[in-house]
Design a protein that fits this description.
The structure holds 3 protein chains of 3 kinds. By secondary structure, chain A is an alpha/beta fold. Helices cover 33% and strands 22% of the residues of chain A. Chain A has 3 domains: 187 residues, FAD/NAD(P)-binding domain (3-Layer(bba) Sandwich), CATH 3.50.50.60; 147 residues, 3-Layer(bba) Sandwich (FAD/NAD(P)-binding domain); 73 residues, Arc Repressor Mutant, subunit A. Chain A has a 5-stranded parallel sheet with strand order 3-2-1-7-20. Chain A starts with 7 loop residues before the first strand and ends with a helix. Chain B has 2 domains: 199 residues, FAD/NAD(P)-binding domain (3-Layer(bba) Sandwich); 154 residues, D-Amino Acid Oxidase, subunit A, domain 2 (D-Amino Acid Oxidase, Chain A, domain 2, 2-Layer Sandwich), CATH 3.30.9. Chain B is built from 9 helices and 19 strands. In chain B, helix 1 runs parallel beside helix 5 and helix 2 packs across helix 9. By secondary structure, chain C is mainly beta. Chain C has one domain: Roll (Ubiquitin-like (UB roll)). Chain C starts with a strand and ends in a 7-residue tail after the last strand. In chain C, strand 5 and strand 6 form a beta hairpin. In chain C, strands 2-1-7-5-6 form a 5-stranded mixed sheet, with helices on one face. The chains are: A alpha/beta, B alpha/beta, C mainly beta.
């Protein structure tokens, strides 16, 4: 039987937004069930060594570590918070006029015979965060090519360096803390390559970058990273991109080229750099599958919310990266508002003010580092796009031409792009954009459908079968 | 009747595609319109079944047997109509194995198979040893099994796109994102349709819009007893190939033949060329409700494990749903609409549209060019009395 | 705290709290799976999104190495896809 009561706020995701929502809902007197897929709270931002391997220098890997410790302690010591760790929300059942049922498998990631539980929340806060977006390039599937987040996660969560001589590339200020983490675990950083050129960056950030009135803490954090790079003599190149990686069984060198303002490589500017790893991220994709399955309306790829973080589904709220990529401060502010309102309270005015400040920051971030369409010109026909099913850009383009179909669904089912076990999380946006360019000016139909994933995470058929018995 | 009529086909699914190709090959001027994209509805939502195993003697079985002959020759025909690097159809004569796990189920299955054999279906009753030779990982708890070597599988979206591309090769035009908004009737005859892209005139308007055919017909001024019947399929991750046939539990036959609106689940388990395993199938009548529900997924999973216990550890990575075009007497509607000259239907194939598409197109061409006498799928048949 | 796991037939020392990916990468491996067309794959996203790093743990396929913490005595094998 589904578990729940008249005042149970269920929060999905134990990152900064979900933690803030949990605490805010508790302050308004609600009982909270916080469901986190990992084995501790903190999310990607405060990812850390597990308690069994705790070290004294953990705080040096983080910003706001004391704040995290305080929030975490308030959550784990509160008997009215049920913290479910290793809780994998695999689906939600949409219902009319009220929050969906929430189905959870509790146990090891990708395990079997885990415990199935179903919650019937009075309010639901979806705070599932984002994952990185890496644009494909020739050789991006070679071992040794990582997302920047992988380098970050392995450094913070494992103390593993992804290589000894590492290039960091892509777009946005998130590349800078990755450099910092790599240095801490002993890697040499060969350089940072930023795709946005100075004109895009300065126009985006405005005349005084990172000097946004109340976002100054963010500015200080970023300045710290820049100082660290200067101290270690790490070159920072703008208006350039990694357009190829070469190697036999792993990356041995990468090709960096200068870009036009629309991110097309400029012929003749290619330089080869010897590395044993490269970390590439061009932005983030909100993890919207549960919100979509719950029936929440989207605005492009983010979840639509009102001033109180309400989605279009009654009783369902969202906070953090799902509403737009904005970083930890915005996530904390939105989480606090969502949790308070989900528990029947009013939005805390201070959080509302912080949200305004950091939304502006988020807007500038996108203007300064947002992906430009010229990237498709470095994706030749032999470039692999879908890493699960090994589908190349040429196959996508040829299929669009030969079938004349403008349908995303048809083109995906014909090529198998995005149909592998990651379900298009890694390649989906690139597949859609390459197909959109291939089908021409009439446009791709059903664009965005890749994000529809009724199963938010795989589960074993045997586990699914026990769900059937419960529901029977 | 007509020599080379102007033909407008509503619906770019597999049935519309097959008709477009046949009519274009007959030198007709063919336009296909779809409110969405090609192969974007029911044709993209099923397993790609070409089945005799679930059909008892009668009109639908005869049409299936005709379609089987067309599927045997289609690859060779398309070879001349498509570029050499067009994706393959993944047409696989893997055969179907229907398995009963109860005594009552065994009795019903064996009786059903006997009636099928009388109608020319190859339905081999197999013993345990043979069943496990066909499917080594099949449950040991079976009470009867019948093997249908004629059952086949095709990748339904590629098949649809191939037929559309072939139609285009013969001069047909495919117009996506063009929605029919009404009919153009002159002197009591349908002479075209109004669309979101303006009026389109035609001698024949053929509605092949699957479960949405009822809504299209309504816009053209007639009612049509075609309703959606929901189905849901689970997809596992890729795995080493351990399921070789289409494998059903014997309840499947009963579920197909039932008209109940309530949820019915019976197992259909098979591998795809891509290495995934598809697990169907549910049947439920509840309009165009697109929700995927855990209770349905759970029921699908439980049933599949009865056939293949080893699947308990398989990762299920996706669930998707679709709508079958359901007709109360379980027969497709193929032929002219006696109430509105100029209007034709090719719809209502429920879960069998992929398999029946080719024969449907040939039958429709005969009805158009030769005679409509003796058409078992006509709209004004006794089985649909009171439904129009 | 040290534990032992078996990686592709070899006994390997590991720390409680390490993920399978952490153990494999600490041991110097950068890839361990082959893709559909036979290409080597290891960790790519590191946060459980890309499924590039799948391994077989105690006979169970499709386990994300970056998400699964090792347990003493785990048997880790490398999984191959059916090649197209």
């Amino acid at each position: 039987m589904p578990e729940g009561s008249a005042t149970t706020v269920v929060v999905i995701g134990g990152g900064p937004a979900g933690m803030a929502a949990t605490l805010a809902a508790r302050r308004r007197g609600a009982r909270v069930v916080l469901i986190e897929a990992g084995d501790d709270v903190g999310g990607q931002y405060w990812r850390h060594l597990p308690e069994t391997r705790a070290t004294a220098d953990e705080h040096t890997f983080h910003h706001g570590w004391e704040r995290f410790r305080t929030m975490r302690s308030a959550i784990v010591t509160d008997p009215e918070v049920e913290l479910i760790l290793n809780g994998h929300v695999w689906s939600v059942d949409r219902r009319d006029g009220r929050p969906p049922l929430v189905h959870v498998m509790i146990g090891a990631a990708d395990g079997r015979r885990r415990q199935a539980r179903t919650f019937d929340p009075s309010s639901l806060v979806i705070a599932t965060g984002a994952h990185e977006r890496t644009l494909p390039f020739p050789g991006w599937d070679l071992p040794g090519v990582f997302t920047a987040g992988a380098a970050q996660a392995l450094a913070k969560g494992e103390r593993v360096a992804v290589g000894t001589n590492v290039l960091v590339a892509g777009a946005g200020p998130f590349l800078l803390p990755v450099v910092s983490s790599l240095l801490k675990v002993g890697a040499t950083v060969a350089g940072v390559v930023e795709a946005a050129g100075w004109p895009q960056i300065t126009r985006g950030w405005g005349a005084r970058p990172w000097r946004l009135a109340k976002a100054s803490a963010k500015g200080v954090e970023l300045k710290g990273y820049i100082a660290e790079m200067a101290k270690n003599r790490i070159p920072y190149t703008v208006g350039s991109a990694v357009i190829a990686a070469h190697g036999i069984d792993r990356v041995e060198e990468v090709v960096v080229a200068r870009l036009t303002p629309d991110w097309s490589p400029i012929p003749g500017t290619e330089k080869t750099i010897t590395v044993d790893a490269v970390c590439v991220s061009h932005g983030f994709v909100p993890r919207t599958e549960l919100a979509i399955t719950a029936g929440c309306a989207l605005d492009k790829d983010t979840v639509k919310t009102d001033q109180n973080q309400r989605t279009t589904v009654p009783g369902v709220f969202t906070a953090g990266e799902l509403t737009g990529i904005g970083g930890v401060d915005l996530a904390l502010a939105e989480g606090e508002i969502a949790g308070a309102v989900a528990a029947g309270g009013a939005p805390p005015p201070a959080a509302v003010r912080r949200r305004k400040t950091f939304r502006e920051f988020a807007g500038r971030l996108d203007a300064a580092h947002g992906i430009r369409p010229g990237w498709q010109t470095w994706v030749d026909d032999t470039t692999l796009v879908c890493r699960c099913e090994d589908v190349t850009a040429g196959e996508l383009r040829d299929t669009a031409r030969m079938t004349g179909s403008r349908g995303l669904r048809s083109l995906k089912l014909t090529t198998r792009a995005g149909l592998g076990i990651c379900q298009g999380r890694t390649c989906g946006r690139a597949v859609e954009e390459i197909l959109a360019a291939a089908v021409g000016p009439d446009g791709l139909l059903d664009a965005g459908r890749t994000a529809h994933r009724p199963l938010a995470v795989p589960l074993r058929l045997g586990e699914l079968a026990t769900t059937g018995e419960d529901a029977g | 009747m007509f020599t080379t009529p102007q033909v407008l086909i509503v619906g770019a699914g597999i049935v519309g595609a097959a008709i477009a190709r046949v009519m274009a090959r007959a030198d007709c001027d063919v336009v296909v319109v779809d409110r969405g994209a090609t192969a974007g509805g029911t044709s993209a939502s099923g397993e790609g079944n070409i089945l005799v195993s679930d059909k008892g003697p009668g009109a639908e079985l005869r049409l299936t047997q005709r379609s089987l002959r067309s599927w045997e020759t289609i690859r060779a025909e398309l070879h001349h109509e498509l570029p050499g690097d067009f994706p393959g159809l993944e047409l696989d004569y893997k055969g179907g194995l229907v398995v009963a796990t109860t005594d009552a189920g065994a009795k019903a299955l064996l009786e059903f198979a006997e009636t099928q054999r009388d109608a020319g279906v190859i339905a081999e009753v197999v013993d345990d040893a043979r069943a496990h030779e066909l499917e080594p990982d099949l449950t040991r708890d079976l009470t009867a099994a019948v093997f249908y070597p004629e059952d086949a599988q095709v990748q339904p979206v590629i098949a649809t796109e191939a037929l559309l591309a072939a139609a285009r090769h013969h001069g047909a035009r495919i117009r996506q994102q063009v929605e029919v908004t009404g009919g153009i009737v002159e002197k009591g005859r349908l002479v075209g349709v109004e669309t979101t892209a303006g009026p389109l005139r035609a001698d024949l308007v053929i509605v092949a819009a699957g479960p949405w055919s009822g809504a299209v017909a309504e816009r053209l001024g007639v009612s049509l007893p075609v309703r959606p019947r929901r189905g849901t399929v689970l997809v596992t991750s890729r795995m080493p190939h351990r399921i070789h046939r289409k494998v059903y539990d014997a309840d499947y036959v009963g579920a197909v033949g039932s008209g109940s609106a309530d949820l019915q689940v019976s197992s259909v388990v098979e591998s795809t060329a891509a290495g995934t395993v598809l697990i169907g199938s549910s049947r439920e009548r509840r309009g165009f409700d697109e929700r995927i529900e855990a209770r349905v997924l759970g029921a699908l999973a439980s049933k599949a494990l009865l056939l293949f216990p080893f699947l308990a550890d398989a990762q299920v990575m996706r669930a998707y749903g679709g709508f079958r075009p359901f007709v109360p007497d379980h027969l497709p509607i193929i032929g002219p609409d006696p109430r509105l000259p100029g209007l034709w239907h090719a719809t209502g194939h429920e879960g069998a549209g992929i398999g029946l598409s080719l024969a449907t197109a040939h039958l429709l061409a005969e009805l158009i060019f030769e005679s409509t006498e003796g058409n078992e799928f006509r709209l004004d048949r006794p089985g649909l009395e009171g439904e129009l | 705290m040290s534990i032992h796991v078996n990686v592709a037939g070899e006994q390997v020392e590991a720390q409680v709290g390490q993920t399978v990916a952490g153990v494999l990468m600490s041991g110097g491996r950068v890839s361990w799976r082959t893709s559909r067309s036979g290409q080597p794959r290891g960790v790519f996203c590191g946060i459980g999104v890309c499924f590039d790093c799948l391994v077989v743990v105690n006979d169970l396929r499709d386990v994300r190495a970056c998400q699964r913490r090792v347990v003493d005595g785990d048997r880790i094998e490398f999984q191959e896809d059916d090649h197209a």
